[in-house]
Design brief:
Blueprint lengths: L12 H12 L7 H8 L3 H5 L10 E9 L2 E9 L23 H15 L2
Antiparallel strand pairs: 1-2
């Protein structure tokens, strides 16, 4: 039987379950070779672990100039019309070396839905 972490009141039970699962099944370290091989995979392989985008009133592909060239952006809004106001910019995980809009679109869309109060 796997040893469970002590109960901590500052950690939600679902988060603790996730942390326990990570500890029980550690992943390989990301070496330069492993990162190079992962980058060869099509986005569809990495996106399999993402949520579906689901229904969204606005799902617009955009680009902007960046210091290293063109940056692809994607705008999600659960409302078709909205007054000007604050916005959230989501920078996907991946240590700035893995992933893309295609691999994290579902998560970004869910954040947009969740923050639409």
């Amino acid at each position: 039987m796997a040893e469970q972490a002590p109960v901590r009141p500052d950690v939600r039970p679902d988060v603790q379950a996730f942390l326990d699962a990570l500890k029980a099944h550690p992943r390989q370290r990301f070496t330069r070779l492993m990162l190079a091989l992962i980058r060869l995979l099509p986005d569809s392989v990495m996106a399999k672990s993402d949520l579906p985008v689901g229904e969204m009133a606005v799902d617009r592909k955009l680009t902007m100039r960046g210091p290293g060239g063109t940056i692809r952006l994607r705008l999600f809004d659960p409302r078709a019309e909205r007054e000007p106001g604050p916005l959230v910019v989501f920078y996907h995980g991946g240590g700035f070396c893995l992933g893309s809009i295609a691999t994290h679109a579902g998560l970004a869309a869910e954040i947009a839905r969740s923050l639409d109060l």
